[in-house]
Amino acid sequence: MSERGFHIKNADSAALLERVGEVFLTGYAHAAEAKTVADAEAGLEQIPVRFRGFAYEGAGMGYAIRDGMPIGGSKHFADFLTGRAKHHEYMAWVGMGWAMARLPRFRWRGFTCADPLMRWLVLDGYGFHQAYFKTERYVRQQYRESAFPWPGGEHAWYAPRAIDQGIGRAMWFVCGTDPDLVVETFDGFAAERRPDLYAGAGLAATYAGGVEEVELRRFWHRSGAYQPQVAQGAAFAATARYEADLVVPHTELALEVFCGMTPREAAELCQKARPTGDEGALPAYEVWRQQISDAVAARTRS
Question: Which residue range forms the structural domain that includes residue 262?
Fold first, then answer.
């Protein structure tokens, strides 16, 4: 934390965030070294429940890196998703975004995602990486990607928004899980970027934790007009943990504060709201996010 210049709120939160980074690298190493997916899974499944999702995220990066290399084939990531990683789908696709940030752009042509929802999680991962490792440019100078080349197509304009969601998620780490500092940092960004930034922070606060209930409630209160986005991010985080059987107390607490529901209810909501059929003017992923935000807001009002 100190080496990266991140804010250190206290020793416990710093230790937690550093542990997350350590486990991510462990997952990456399992993917980089394993002869088979089963070999990697044997190590990944030994990671404690609280941190196992981060290990699968790191493994997703590792397998995507292997696909992006000029030798060794290009099916590592796809094979990874056919195993236990199918229960960690959110985290695995985010890991691919980390790989994109590390590989030359001409290597990206090997990265594909047919799922119109999951593809935007790749850019969430890319945004997280950039804010985490290029903090001066992406956080303090508030640099924003434009004309981003991946995934392209009619919804290419949405790429900077998906990247901002990852930047917001990284901000939970950059600000050392200090909710006041997160809000104050977001206040410095252009207003049109804040909804996506807050969604990312809500996801990180729910998935990674690092705060007590009073801090969660303060973050919720200070989020103000962006509470629907915080709730949406929290619902995504809880769903990712629920579907992977990785629910832990801090996720249950954050979800209660932000959404007034249980992880199972959040997962059911996300599944019910998941769009089907052809995409329209908005990416299906954004339609999905809006439907979740609206549903949680309606539930909170009632």
Answer: 11-301
